[in-house]
Specification:
Blueprint: E1 4-5, H1 14-22, E2 33-40, E3 44-52, H2 64-67, E4 70-72, E5 75-79, E6 85-88, H3 90-103, H4 111-124, E7 141-150, E8 163-172, E9 183-187, H5 205-220, E10 225-229, E11 237-240, E12 244-249, E13 254-257, H6 266-277, E14 282-285, H7 289-298, E15 301-308, E16 312-321, E17 324-326, H8 333-346, E18 357-359
Parallel strand pairs: 1-3, 9-10, 9-16, 13-14
Antiparallel strand pairs: 2-3, 2-8, 4-7, 5-6, 5-7, 6-18, 7-8, 10-11, 12-13, 12-15, 15-16, 16-17
Helix pairs in contact: 3-4
Bound molecules: pyridoxal-5'-phosphate (PLP).
Length: 361
Amino acid sequence: MEISTTASTAAVSDDRLAEILANPGFGLHFTDHMFTVEWTPDAGWHGARIEPYGPLTLDPATAVLHYAQEIFEGMKAYRHEDGSIWSFRPEENAARMMRSSHRLALPVLEVDDFVQAVDALVVADQRWVPDSTEPGAGEKSLYLRPFMFASEAFLGVRPAQHVTFMVIASPAGAYFKGGIKPVTLWLTEEYTRAGRGGMGAAKTGGNYASSLVAQQEATANGCDQVVFLDAQEGRYVEELGGMNMYFVHDDGTIVTPEIGTILEGITRSSIIELAGKLGHQVVERKFSIDEWREGVTSGRITEVFACGTAAVVTPVGALKWDGGEVPAPASTDLTMRIRQALVDIQYGRAEDTFGWMHRII
Ligand SMILES: *Cc1c(COP(=O)(O)O)cnc(C)c1O
């Protein structure tokens, strides 16, 4: 893919950038540039470009605004101690976006083009990749958001004949300010996030839209996040709004809900491999809410954790629902060991024995 570049003339000043990178938050500040490529049935993908970051002008009839034909990815670029910049398994994000494309009847962007687009934006905005090696800097990174949407102005219901793929980037601070503490979860008994044959396995904005009211319920009940059960029987744990789950048992076995209606997290599959190397058997199967309740109460479940690109790994504390509660599991030891092992690979502090890291610069 040939990419043209227009440098930003209104780039953020070095002083302002230093201020932002000292305390980036999440999803608040955006880099100087953005990547765009467009698709039509006749021309395929064309017009790849890097331009100054800025608003889009959209016709009010743009299909995505009406029918939500949209998919996205979430990944990070990490600066290592020697100044080099890396991403984590970007081909996996590209492959997942191809699967999401298929589910939402969007065109497929090839893995190489996806990775090239992300790399090109990171190169253009490399000064925005925070340094995480200075003492107290925490786990900072440049969060990357590739996304694809129906950009045709047409109100008929059919797959769009004009599609846009973009990449934007935003510096991200440590997810947990002031140390990692377990998240409390709200079990929603009213809402589900995905049914059989639905979009649960696709990374699409619609899944997030449908999770928001349940998240609101969680917050109203004093919980940090919501956990969803399967839509068919309302018995099996699926995942959080944007994180996959693990249950550590007292014999060292780790159970994680099987693929199907859940989103196949790249952190999830990396942890399956990593835990295996640490000597733990990881089982992918249905895991019922009763097993959770009884397991924590009896001590058979020693740890529960959740994972995703943004938070990496977070211990799970108490689970609450209307009229009941399961207390926090006894330990967070293995959770924190797995977290550290993964973060050390991402930041280049541990040997990349799995070959997961991709050097950008
Ligand atoms: C993105 C996402 C995850 C986590 O996936 P990672 O690749 O690990 O970041 C989990 N659940 C949902 C619903 C997601 O959208």
